[in-house]
Amino acid sequence: MVLVYPQIVTGADLLRGIIKLDHLAPLLKRRGAKSVGIVNSKMYGVRSFYQVIKKYDIHPVIGLSIRLEITEGADVLLFAYAKDDKGYGNLLKISSAMATRDQETLPLKWLQAYSEGCVLICPLTDKSWDEWRHSDTLSKIGSVCQTVYIGVSRPNGVRHPSEDEIQKISKANGIEITAFHESRYLMEEDAFAFEVATAIRSGYKLNDPSRPKIEVYDAFLPEEEQLQNWFSDRPEWLEKMSDILLSCNAEMPPSHSRMPAFPVPVGETSATLLKKHCEQGLARRLGSITATYHERMQYELKIIESMGFSDYFLIVEDFMRFSREQGILTGPGRGSSAGSLVAYSLGITDVDPIKYGLIFERFLNPGRITMPDIDIDFADNRRSEVIEYVAKKYGKNHVAQIITFGTLSAKSVARNVARVFDFSNEEMGFLSKQIQEGHSRKLEESVKQSKALQDWIAMDPIRNKWFQAARALEGLPRNASTHAAGVILSPVPLVETVPLQNGSDDIYLTQWAMGDVEEVGLLKMDFLGLRNLTLMDRIKSMIEHDKGVVLNFEEIPLNDQKTFELFREGDMTGVFQFESDGMRDALRLIKPDEFSDIYAINALYRPGPMENIPLYSRRKNNNEKIHYIHPQLEPILKETEGIIVYQEQIMQIAVRIAGFTMAEADLLRRAVSKKKREILRQEREHFVKSAVNNNFPEKSASEIYDLIVKFADYGFPKSHAVAYSLISYQLAFIKANEPAYFYAALLSLATGNQDKIMEYIHEIRRKGIAILPPSIQRSKFSHIVENGAIRIGLGAIKGVTPAFYNIVKSARTANGWKSLFDFSAAIGGTHFTEKAIIPLIKAGALDEFGENRSVLLASIEAARNHAMFIGTEGEDDLLLDVIFSIAQPKYTPGGTMPRFAMLEYEREVLGFYLSEHPALELKKNLDGQIVDLVDVPNMRERSMARVAGLIREIKRIRTKKGEAMAFLTLQDETGELSCTIFPKQYAISNVHLQELAMVQLEGTMEKRNGQTQLIVQKSNKI
Asked: What does the mean pLDDT of the chain come to?
């Protein structure tokens, strides 16, 4: 027989199979298999399967498992194979049809439309036998498809009990029989790992007696001898199986560009229309177009047209215009596209490439034709509107978002397998702590590096089974979701080139990930949601509402000294890309005083190039003289203090020194970055020879080439650095010039993130900006600016929903409410519930009624009863006036709320202390430098810190020697800190260590397991 494997379900099918291609292909090669067919439930993993199997000189067959709907509620399993290219196209349609129906089945009548070029195998198994024999299904399928077979399986040699009857059905319907065997894992011993995978996918535990039975047994990859033994009496069935697979000759279509067409007016072409739009746009940008700009634009347009990309630029321009018209904030540019004057003219980017010395060939290189890649940032809360616009304009069947697969990484697989093993919470926590992720670290590597993990596994055979199963499943796709940015657009219905499934917002989702989609040649566009643009948009709206001033970010001056002062101080909280401690240190070291420093620091602060930050600083601040290998490098490297920082500088050097064209220079940049010895040697010869021909000294040319090689990996795209640094600068400008609006918007976006809120509140107070409490009558849902202060929004209060806020908003009147009872009556007893009102009281939002918060809490029921009493519907106005006149409710006595309780309530519902914390007043009266608790984690390890605050919690223990010590939680207005007091110090300070006591502590800062703690060496009660 010719060895073939007809039904392989790979690990790409989301745990329906666990076969990994890098294990499958070598095994098939060793066994001498001639062909293998994939039959996943969707077209997941088909392209990778085809490519890997082809690489091993084995004949790949593209197939699909189909649930065929015979009648409503009744379906049967089919295996469909692409016999030719027409069949392959129909498999795309079948997979898409099933994946876009709620039942994920294919109606029988649809099969007729999609069956051309396909081979169908109707598998008769124990499970499916009843489905087949009690209907005329086979005859129906045979009537709509030309090539149909009955499949008989004998897993592990076990015959189907009704084979005789199957043969009768075969003869009666004129349908031949073929052997088949479904493989979902490779070796027999992998059966348990497959069972675990099924449990993970289905969401049950292995020890659950009610869990469903495994539907597929003995689904390993049998040896040739095993297959021969299983079908020893029916070798012709095996031969038929081989014949079927070897007759399937569908191939993956070759990749070619599929550029969609932009609808142009009659008499225009995409090229002429693009030119017209560019000229108009550049005139709007510049007023008058100089020769330099005109020549650059004509040059770019010529290249764009020759590469066939005119339509693409018009498409992007169109949805960018839509964004502007709808008030959707977009970024100034991203990546290499900022180097295009055409993009700048069309309003796609806001970076003038000539002003900043950006290079078009870094974006589009006529010497290396690839699909253009213009990535656009949108305010993340409105990104979906743009995608919906594109789908509507070009048609739902032509636009899709791209799928992405979440894989079982080391930690993920460990936890998922542990969950189905029903491990305890303690065991789960132990695994999470012991298994480290990052840089593709494998589970096995984590185990090898952890003695504790090795000992833990060795203690129990069940844990060893856990480890073996987890290792087998590691790296497999676990779930599918939508890619954060990728959208594809096709000139023909997408289903003709890529399988689809239902996505969100009525937009399709591809069944193939980004790499596969791009290989097909489809146009991919990245619509990225950027939180910082949402922040800027919120600030812009607030300023426009309050001041009537429209903030135009493009017109913000790039020489504002208040803004540069923020950068020099490292005052970067909330400023895009510059918030990290390391970046702040770089800013303080370099002391930027012009925008070019900002984008240079942005490019330098990355692994590798950051070692040049001190050198850049010394040269910028005139502490070190710049030395150039050759004078001709000075015009190129002067802006970066003689250091190669940008990829564009490498290209400029190649042009100036070796006489390369920009296109050749970009190819050189790409080539040397690969660091392959042979390529480096070839490019050296090319560069040096060209430089000599350009009248340049050979020795200097060789030295400059070495410089290029050294910095090739360090170079960052200048176009991206400039564009993204514009966002950073604009945010810093707002922070420097409109700090209250900046912080109000920043706080609104941080709602729910208590750590961030505490950090922002601390900084706001340190800058002297007042924070006003939430007000039931004045607050909006988000934070606002009120007379230079920040008014906390009601939405910041835990438990206050947008729906409840809208009720409050609609009930407000110009006269306002004078009491809790007025408020309850205004919104009605139905909405005035403890769940809604308690958080408002705890946050201080009802303080304006002039009662203690304890009284307000005690009076909720009385206020609700009042609201229900006067809220009688259908009464006339006279009766209502009478009701109001006699309804004079009184507050319920509740005493006075303790200050500490009030503070804790505020932190509970707001995430920070709104009222003045007692520690704040305490610290004002202490001598010496007192460190705020929020700042302790940022201190140098083992450094001394003096802190002060309130003891919130204390835990006393005894050491193994019987000595007493304590752990306590210290709290001030900025946050909390864990403190450890060892026996010696404890003996001295025990007397004043009491909960709610105010203390001053001094000690060293340490970090253990990522947690900051203070090792107390001195303590005083205050």
From this structure: 91
Instruction: Say how far apart CA 754 and CA 752 lie, in whole Å.
Output: 6
What gap in Å lies between CA 418 and CA 412, rounded to an integer?
10
* Whole-Å CA distances, 182 to 50, 472, 943: 18, 19, 64
Strand stretches in 493-638, DSSP E: 500-501, 508-510, 523-530
* Pairwise CA distance, residues 551 & 540, whole Å: 6
- Could you report the per-residue pLDDT of 766-795, keeping only the tens digit for each? 899 999 999 999 999 999 999 999 999 999
β-pair type (508-510, 399-407):
parallel
Alpha-carbon gap, residue 182 to 180, rounded angstroms: 7
- pLDDT per residue as tens digits for the range 627-656: 998 899 999 999 999 999 999 999 999 999
Q: Give the CB-side neighbour count of residue 803, counting CA atoms within 13 A.
A: 3
Own/partner pairs for 663-671, CB < 8 Å, 24+ apart? Answer: 663/361, 663/365, 663/366, 663/367, 663/368, 664/367, 665/361, 666/359, 666/361, 666/362, 666/365, 666/367, 666/368, 667/365, 667/367, 667/368, 668/708, 669/712, 669/715, 670/368
Backbone angles phi, psi at 378, to 5 degrees: -125, 155
Query: What is d(CA 416, CA 206) in angstroms, rounded to the nearest whole number?
Result: 12
pLDDT of residue 795: 95
Report pLDDT for 838.
97
Nearest-CA neighbor of 99 among 376, 345, 403? Answer: 403
CA 121 to chain centre: 41
One-letter identity of residue 306? S
pLDDT tens per residue across span 415-431: 999 999 999 999 998 99
Nearest to 411 by CA among 438, 384, 389: 438
d(CA 137, CA 510): 32
Helix residue ranges, H only, 120-190:
129-133, 137-144, 163-173
Contacts of 1006-1010 spanning 24+ positions with Cβ under 8 A: 1006/941, 1006/942, 1007/937, 1007/941, 1009/433
Q: Are 434 and 453 in contact (CB under 8 A)?
A: yes
Q: Are strands 74-82 and 118-124 parallel, antiparallel or unpaired?
A: antiparallel
Distance CA 606, CA 457 (A): 39
β-strand pairing of 59-71 with 74-82: antiparallel
Distance CA 536, CA 331 (A): 10
What confidence tens digit (pLDDT) does each residue in 283-306 have?
999 999 999 999 999 999 999 999
771-772 vs 789-791, strand pairing mode: parallel
The amino acid sitting at 694 is N
374 within 8 A of 476, measured Cβ to Cβ: no
Q: What are phi and psi of 623, to 5 degrees?
A: -100, -5
Q: What is the dihedral of CA 150, 155, 160, 166, to 10 degrees?
A: 10
Cβ atoms within 10 Å, residue 595: 20
Burial grade of 351 (CB within 10 A; 0-12, 13-18, 19 or more): buried
Full-model pTM: 0.86
Measured between alpha carbons, how far is 968 from 318 in angstroms, rounded to an integer? 61
Query: Phi and psi for 935 in degrees, rounded to 5?
Result: -90, -10
3-class DSSP assignment, residue 477: strand
Q: Are strands 500-501 and 771-772 parallel, antiparallel or unpaired?
A: unpaired
Residue in 833, 771, 769 with CA at minimum distance from that of residue 807: 833
Long-range contacts of 228-231 (CB under 8 A, 24+ apart): 228/1, 229/157, 230/154, 230/156, 230/157, 231/154, 231/179
For 537-616, where are the E strands, in sequence order?
Answer: none
- % of the chain residues with pLDDT over 70: 97
Q: How many angstroms separate the CA atoms of 453 and 418, rounded?
A: 14
Are the C-beta atoms of 743 and 731 separated by less than 8 Å?
Answer: no
Query: DSSP letter at 810?
Result: H
For the stretch 970-993, pLDDT in tens is 988 888 899 999 999 999 999 889
Confidence bin at 440 (pLDDT 50/70/90): low
Structure tokens at 131: 């489905």
